[in-house]
């Protein structure tokens, strides 16, 4: 059970310094985070969309301790949207945001996060695209869902993320499916206590399928965040059973993981969206990618041994 250990390390300043200082780290990080600036990420956007893929863009960074940092995070997204506008990609390039970046954990954080995220949602709508609110640990979710509900009054395409390992998610999925939301379903990538979350893979997988069925049979737009071949096959079967066309749901996978599968699904006519992160504050994002899948950790450790 290395995942919880890695997630704990993601909050350690000492581990942050050690990992960041390792000579091989940057070239491994580049597998998952293909740039630090908008200028560096624009060619990646061009390449992916040129291959028939769609994107959701994440400006990495979660350790926000001041309102000024939250404002800077908002402005980073506004810069990205300003650069995307002339490309006329529309919904092919949406944004994913973590409300913690917009000040959610600060005093008065709910109102602060809403005030910061609204201009991003407005700017995205102005260029024909939208924003998805990422889920974080369970203590933040009531605030996230309330902000999602508020934004959807004016911007109904605003999406949100739900996590299969949380006990509450089956009820959340029923509510969201009934009101026609855009919903990304993921397994979950935070260390959560047994009182609120499934702890074993087989339990999480079964919950994922139950929730997926609810979304497919509902009125919303399911976004399937998984690299698991079995869950991809189950998704296709549930979509057929529910009578959904290929443009009535989509797959989402992380940049740097199963790239051949991205292309295969797109070639079959599926909407395939690549979660593409960029920025300098990459540590927390990178460590969660290692925790999610043993193969990612093995890739990192092999690289350190062979290049260190």
UniProtKB/TrEMBL annotation:
It comes from the Bacteria. This is proline dehydrogenase. Residues 45-299 form the Proline dehydrogenase domain. The lineage of its organism: Bacteria, Bacillati, Actinomycetota, Actinomycetes, Kitasatosporales. Pathway: Amino-acid degradation; L-proline degradation into L-glutamate; L-glutamate from L-proline: step 1/2. Its EC number is 1.5.5.2. SUPFAM superfamilies: FAD-linked oxidoreductase (SSF51730). The keyword Cell cycle does not apply.
